[in-house]
């Protein structure tokens, strides 16, 4: 039986952000801790804001890349900010561009589009809200082959991309809390092979050795989290092909990151792991698919990431995220 998550992901294109986008800012020094580890993630408190994509990925592809086609900067009131983050609003009916910055009684600052289908908010504790009300996006239940709304944050690591083989550890951490989870589908219309709301996290693993036969081969290294359909987290890996980018996706067994927890319970949950052993496992798994056949760990770099909502169903959902880290020990 085809894995449901795999099926839903096949036509998705959040990966366009990493492939087509380059950071529009200058270089930013990465912090080095007393233990000798280097923080790869930049602006983990989101204070510099986001540059915003168009709603149609084809605009980026046909317009010469993100730097030539981004539609706005969501800077949370800091006019001199130079974002290192991008925000993708693929396939939305309404754009977040030119939206007025507002403040909530809880102290958060937010942008919300005219149709009130998407919202992004920054809280005093430096957590970020990503909200999608898909009931305002769909006129009827999604059908096979129909695109779905995304709300994703992403950044490229550029010349700070860590080398997998040279790293002793690759320590990943993030915290998430589900804020809203409402199924707006009428009884009898929900099809789990077509409909869900989910928040995958993806790193890009790329062979960056020009002398390697596999040079430029890359995959999505996925860390699953919330999925409307699955209260119990899986302890199994998954592999699939993303037709949107012709890149394979390797999904980490989510219990390795989160433990055996319930991400639906509305509490803060922390995911953490040294992902280097899992990356090495992914390399071996890809060889069975004809990818990385001639790749050594020293050939691979982690070149970027994205995280957020994909909502191929009529669900109103929101999540908060904070403390995203990728720390490298050499």
Layout of secondary structure:
Blueprint: H1 4-9, H2 16-20, E1 38-39, E2 50-52, H3 57-63, H4 66-69, E3 72-74, E4 85-88, E5 102-103, E6 109-112, E7 118-122, E8 128-133, E9 150-156, E10 169-183, E11 201-207, E12 218-223, E13 238-242, E14 247-251, H5 255-258, E15 269-274, H6 276-287, E16 300-310, E17 315-329
Parallel strand pairs: 2-4, 12-14
Antiparallel strand pairs: 1-17, 2-3, 4-9, 5-6, 6-7, 7-8, 8-17, 9-16, 10-15, 10-17, 11-12, 11-16, 13-14
As a percent range, the share of helical residues equals 10-25%
**Binned strand content:** 25-35%
Please trace the helix and strand order, writing H or E for each element.
Answer: HHEEHHEEEEEEEEEEEEHEHEE
Task: Please list the strands of the largest sheet in the order they lie side by side.
Answer: 3-2-4-9-16-11-12-14-13
Oligomerization state of this entry? single chain
Which residues form runs of ≥5 with pLDDT under 50? 1-29
> What structural category arises from helix and sheet content?
mainly beta
What does the overall shape look like?
A: globular
Distance between the termini: 41 Å
Mean pLDDT: 91
Main sheet, how many strands, which sense, barrel? 9 strands, mixed
- Radius of gyration, in Å, reads 19 Å
Number of strands: 17
């Amino acid at each position: 039986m085809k894995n449901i998550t795999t099926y839903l992901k096949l036509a998705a294109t959040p990966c366009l952000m990493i492939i087509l986008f380059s950071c529009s800012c200058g270089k930013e020094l990465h912090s080095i801790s007393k233990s000798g580890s280097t923080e790869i993630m930049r602006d983990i408190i989101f204070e510099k804001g986001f540059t915003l994509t168009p709603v149609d990925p084809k605009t980026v592809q046909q317009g010469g890349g993100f730097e030539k086609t981004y539609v706005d900067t969501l800077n949370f009131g800091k006019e001199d900010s130079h974002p290192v983050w991008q925000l993708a609003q693929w396939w939305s009916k309404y754009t977040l561009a030119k939206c007025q910055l507002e403040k909530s009684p809880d102290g958060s600052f937010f942008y919300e589009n005219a149709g009130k289908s998407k919202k992004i908010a920054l809280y005093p504790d430096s957590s970020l809200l990503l909200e999608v009300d898909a009931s305002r996006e769909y006129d009827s239940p999604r059908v096979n082959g129909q695109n779905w709304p995304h709300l994703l944050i992403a950044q490229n690591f550029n010349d700070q991309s860590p080398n997998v083989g040279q790293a002793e550890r690759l320590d990943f951490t993030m915290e998430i809390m589900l804020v809203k989870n409402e199924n707006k589908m009428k009884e009898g219309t929900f099809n789990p092979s077509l409909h869900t709301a989910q928040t995958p996290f993806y790193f890009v693993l790329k062979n960056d050795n020009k002398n390697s036969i596999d040079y430029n081969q890359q995959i999505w290294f996925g860390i699953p989290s919330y999925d409307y359909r699955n209260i119990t987290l899986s302890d199994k890996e998954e592999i699939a092909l993303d037709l949107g980018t012709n890149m394979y996706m390797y999904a980490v067994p989510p219990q390795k990151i989160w433990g055996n927890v319930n991400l639906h319970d509305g509490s803060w949950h922390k995911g953490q792991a040294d992902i280097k052993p899992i990356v090495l496992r992914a390399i071996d798994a890809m060889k069975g698919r004809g990818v990385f056949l001639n790749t050594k760990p020293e050939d691979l770099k982690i070149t970027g990431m994205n995280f957020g909502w994909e909502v191929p169903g009529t669900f109103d959902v929101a999540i908060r995220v904070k403390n995203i880290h990728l720390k490298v020990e050499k």
